[in-house]
Design brief:
Structural class: alpha+beta
Largest sheet: 5 strands, antiparallel
Helix content: 10-25%
Strand content: 15-25%
Amino acid sequence: LMYFPKTITSFEDAYAFAKNYPNLVYKECPEMTVDMEKQYLVTVITTKGSFVMELYPKSAPYTVNSFLFLAKDGYYNNSPFHRVIDGFVAQAGTGITGELGTGYEYDNEIEPNLKYDKAGVVGMANAGENTNAANFSSPMPPSPHWTAVTPSLVR
């Protein structure tokens, strides 16, 4: 379970969050422990409700492994959706600006059959090719063209 308390909507909210944000930075990608044959479901709890994400370890093993590692370690706890742009994207995962980072990055894992072609598809957000870390996002509305840019993680 991951808990996201609220979206940052003011400077005061951002300052309070940054001041209390846990200092979770890692030296390298976590050891690969994901089971490729297992089904992984993650429940995300927010102030607006909860949703379940299905992870695809066969399509994105490093992404799923990293995501599960960070979730189990509490990295996402109390982290807000720091970027919510109506009609474009909702993004969460690393603090107020998305720049706090994990201390490591990993390569894109693009599965051509996984697309942002319907509401609720979530994938890793990044700052360019092979810069994945902790941010995840979901486009609003569906955006199938994102598949070539951002690796798909869940549906």
